[in-house]
Amino acid sequence: MAKLSFTLKEVAEHNSPKDCWLIIDGKVRKDATDDFEDVGHSTTAKSMMDEFYVGDIDSATIPSKVEYKPPNQAHYNQDKTPEFIIKILQFLVPLVILGAAVGIRFYTKSS
């Protein structure tokens, strides 16, 4: 079988269950390089790929990968309450609860 060079468009036309091509490491099969490498195939599995080799991909026809960049958002202060007020409340609220408990205890004991 003659080893040819295919454009990405030509490979994309072979998308039926009986005629599905992949592109693995620049070789035409269908682009499954990441999936193939993530599984950690043995050298035997990698050598079996030669049996299904059709040709090489024309690298000029492959679009460059687009990296996702989140949109810029205006920075704003989510916490509008100053930190020192929170610190004071963390100290005063338990103190008020304790004072109320002692006051209730003292009032109910004297009756």
How are the SSEs ordered, and which strands pair?
Blueprint: E1 4-6, H1 8-12, E2 15-16, E3 19-20, E4 23-24, E5 27-28, H2 33-39, H3 43-48, E6 55-57, H4 83-110
Parallel strand pairs: 1-6
Antiparallel strand pairs: 2-3, 4-5
InterPro entries: Cyt_B5-like_heme/steroid-bd (IPR001199), Cyt_B5-like_heme/steroid_sf (IPR036400), Cytochrome_b5 (IPR050668)
Family: Belongs to the cytochrome b5 family.
Domain Cytochrome b5 heme-binding: 6-58
Fold and architecture overview:
The chain has helices spanning 8-12, 33-39, 43-48, 83-110; strands at 4-6, 15-16, 19-20, 23-24, 27-28, 55-57. The N and C termini lie far apart (105 Å). The chain folds into two domains: 4-61, Roll (Flavocytochrome B2, Chain A, domain 1), CATH 3.10.120; 80-111. The chain is α+β, with helices and mostly antiparallel strands and 111 residues long. It is elongated. Its main location: endoplasmic reticulum. Residues 6-58 form the Cytochrome b5 heme-binding domain.
Descriptive labels:
two-stranded parallel ribbon, 41% helix, alpha+beta, 111 residues, 4 helices, Flavocytochrome B2, Chain A, domain 1
